[in-house]
Batch of 4 targets.
Target 1
Amino acid sequence: MTSRFTELAIDCTDPDALARFWCSVLDYEAREEDEDGVVTIGPPVTPGAGSQRGPVPPTLTFARVPEGRTVKNRLHIDLSPADREQDEEVGRLLALGARTAYVGQGDESWVVLVDPNTPDYQFC
């Protein structure tokens, strides 16, 4: 038996804003918000899907933390458009508030974007 990847926990300064952004990006919906402001989002619930074998789309949990980030992220999320070309999807994500970032990618075919809450100075 193996394990399944079911949740990614993300520390941030504005859980509500990031949850709204990622719901729009992934076509997810808010699942839960607790009294501490932790917001969990996931794909729309399909009746009976909990017992299915195979890939399970992970939920994302956003938790407010008081301290700012001081070093580079050690994790990033790779996305691939499901129903359109890459340039169309990049345009959609930019319209949702994402920003482009240069991290030394050169002439690669992939595009680096940061979410609306990531300060510019972290990519200098």
Target 2
Amino acid sequence: MGPQAGRPTSASSNAGDATEDQEALDLAADWADISQGLRKDLGQQVHSQWIKPIQLGSFCKETGTLDLFLPTDFSANWVQDRFHDRLSLAWKIARSEVKNVRIQVHPGRRKLADIDLRAASAPANDTSPRGAAGVLGSIGDQGFTSSVGLDPSLTFGAFVTGTTNVLACNAAERMASAQKPQFSPLYLKASTGQGKTHLLHAIGHAYLQVNPRARIFYCSAERFMVEFVQALRQNEMIEFKARLRGFDLLLVDDIQFIIGKASAQEELLYTIDALLAEGKRLVFAADRAPQALDGVEQRLLSRLSMGLVADMQPADIELRRSILESKLTRFAPLEVPGDVIEFLARTINRNVRELVGGLNKLIAYAQLTGQEVSLQLAEEQLTDILSANRRRITIDEIQRTVCQFYRVDRSEMSSKRRARAVVRPRQVAMYLSKVLTPRSYPEIGRKFGGRDHSTVIHAVRLIEDLRKRDADMDGDVRSLLRQLES
């Protein structure tokens, strides 16, 4: 007797299942590639917070619609507003049959959210089965990030210290230690790209090492305000406060953006008071001192400055050199000459982020083209970064400074005299002109009495060689560089 009408045979059913399984595997493979590309474009932190939680849903071939799921209304709305176009384009490139990408809340998450809220407000010493990993994960799913939102590469071990940031680093390590900190909150003040965000992540990682059950809240002040307004509009302020005050360590970056919205500032003020009263730890970071924050209520300013304000000054030449050298281990066995490191450390001085970015770009270009890393390659490939960082030092200024240093007359820079007492300062000035200005060899030669470009090249190479062999010459050049760059 044949199979019942309307029901597929076992063979056809298995074939259909196999086809569906293969389609699911293909979708997953495409998503892995897309997600990896977005991680490179958006950065590790943004990817971990918003892209990584996305789960693949079903794909309708008839309409060409692909569903992507996120755990909460907030995260779904955030990704929809900021990344929908990018996700749609990426999927259309990967699969031409995808016509539309639909971002929505995972249908099985709403019931789970109620459990997560209770977990976030549970006592710190709770020993029920929803232990450390479960609590941290569920809080992360609610939109707040915990250990999941911490960049694994930003640890104390990867943070290079120097005279300009040692106080902030030591204070951060103390905040993350098992001992109760002597001060709270800790306020890290630094201009853009000097490492304050790195220290925030490092504190989170180190604190989890000594307290694996710790519940951590890391976000920017801007995101805090966005989530506050979202909770206010959805009438979820009780849940918002319960989650926020259930954390053991509060890490808030870019606090300078906590402007306007008096109600959000007031909620942060009450949260600080509540956490401090319970002995919790708080760390804030900003690009200016608390007293210089604009549009922030005075009571909140007093709370932010009541602990320790640790100032991180721009990295000096020694620290910049150390940071570059610490990064070189990642690129072994590729060799980066010492003069290139010295050149980058001296020239890219606005912030550490640009410094490391310049090194990465230079090495990536060398690896992809098969060229050796050299001073000439650095000058050719990093023109945008170098021009943005260089103070407009002129050749006239260099000649004047060198003449004062060696006590020779300014006219000797253009004279034909070949006495050693004149030639060596002239060669040093040519070398500094090449290092500190964007001028070409012929342009430099014209400023030194119309000399040929080959004369300038010889002078630059000679001084480079002397700096390696002669400590006095190296000391002279270093002293002149400090004068000209100050």
Target 3
Amino acid sequence: MRIIAFVVLAFCLISCTASKGRDGGWVRLFDGSSLAGWRVNENPATFKVENGAIVVHGPRAHLFYEGAVMDHNFKNFEFKAQVMTTPGSNSGIFFHTAFQPSGWPDKGYEVQVNNSQSDWRRTGSLYAVQDVREVYVKDNEWYTEYIKVEGKRVTIKINDRTVVDYTEPDGIEKEEGRAQKRLSSGTFALQGHDPDSKVYFKDIMVRPLP
């Protein structure tokens, strides 16, 4: 019995260690069942949770992460989420942003979520900075959207394919309209674009970097 117990214990330790290694420092920002740790600015009904995913559908609104992870203030990080669009939908993922009560976020950058809506800037675009015209994923299918910020460099991947590799030039804050639309630090936000858009987000995770 002791031998069996030892073998079981050893197996558990190996399994737990391997599992921890696979996580690799990734932390969940969305618990899969509620919007705990998140805050909507306008039109709260635009966001709800169904079947383990955040459903974004309704008038313009933005859902800001205000949870405990890094005191919702990220500078260098890796971020990833499972995303699914529906035909004709537009959304976005903001980073280095901050809560504001209404309007499009003034601070930080937006990464586009749009596979078929009329805006030509497609999924993965660093919006209006380094845009993507190609469509890499289809509506009604889950895909991974990944963002990495390290220093002045922003990397965006769609299903492990790099679509944006951007290095922010020095002095960008001196350019017209870029005082806040630049790299600094801040939180994440999901965009509710318009009532005709319906987009799903799940497995929202971050890995802080030095």
Target 4
Amino acid sequence: MTPNAPDQVPARALALLPLLVFLAIFLGSGIYHSMIGTELAFYQVKAPVAAFPAIILAVLLYRGKVNLAIDEFLQGASHPNLILMFMVFMLAGAFASVSSAIGSVDATVQMGLSVIPSEFVLPMLFVIAAFIATAMGTSMGTIAACAPIAFGFSQVTHIEAVYAIGAVVGGAMFGDNLSMISDTTIAATSSQKVALRDKFKVNVWIAGPAAVLTIVLYALISHDAQSIHYQAYNPWLIVPYAAVFVLAFSRLHVVAVLTLGIVLSGLMGLLVNPDFNLLQLNNSIYAGFIGMFEVALLSMFLGGLSAIMQKEGGLRWLIERIYSLTRLLNIGRQRAGELGISCLVVFSNLFVANNTVAIILSGDMAREVAQEYGVEPKRAAAFMDIFSCIVQGVIPYGAQMLLACSIAQISPLELIGHIYYCWILIVFAVLAIVFRLPKFKTR
């Protein structure tokens, strides 16, 4: 078998150079400023500005007219998935801003402190985020709803913000991975031509134990959390968050859920808070938009950049190298196949910063690898989804990480090491490949 189809673009390693330039500028600047002791080291060079030279280089390297390269960039930047992501960023920022302005976040935190012992805050945040993401099928909407509350808990306890936000991101990635309506689940099962329930059966036996161990770890971390006496709160101010949580379990679109959250927050503020008026509502919504503009712009820039790299054969070159490597591994055909499929998704995700797009890009090749190495389609789909969610949850320029850090005002690289679920899931996924787990009886 050959990894190249006649209608596919020729592989070209040089096409990957622009993204390497972006990473060198963005991460290199942050590391340098960290070494010299600069405060907010990773905010000294703005990510969209760091992406701009990479975009120029991608256009210059394009084997065609400049106008065609720009058209490719614009098509990638305006992909429906990216437009949805842009809208989620904007609405999440507005919802968080309005809810904070009317006191909804503080009221929700105080209610939580009144019913949840401080030592169980982190496990609770992980579990709630996991349930919401499973119901919504999106990690972005989950983080938008839960991160402000997690940050609020960190403000009134001894729990550091990176632990609280890390619990939310981990829970969101767990739910996104297992949800039957998640884009990643649908993309993985469609590409491998397998039923959703079959992929779920494999997936849950890998992700489930990792989630249980994560909950235990969070319980141990927060064991010494400071006990805080809760203050009086207005229960009406909790309605916006309660509504978003409830609507998350419906089949309502995430854009509609966040929009209703903004409307309810505004109404509660106008009815309950005498100091809140329409002008303040206007300013709060706009402040939320402004706060998320940087991360939304970066997502569109990277979407356009990845489109050019794909068109120029950069991702094809990467996939072919991984495909060739799996043929050399002497670890058993099925193990080599599953490892190769996992690597396809991992590296695709690193270069496109979108787990759904990464699965779509590597889906056909993964199916070829699965057929050649005798990997069951349900296992191929499960590992594609698992490793895409792992990478998406920890890359500092991924949408989930950027959204969470924007809400909590912390550095992405500071948060990476505290998303324990993703790191634990890597161990369980590798063990599942090595020991061929889980094992099912054949009928």
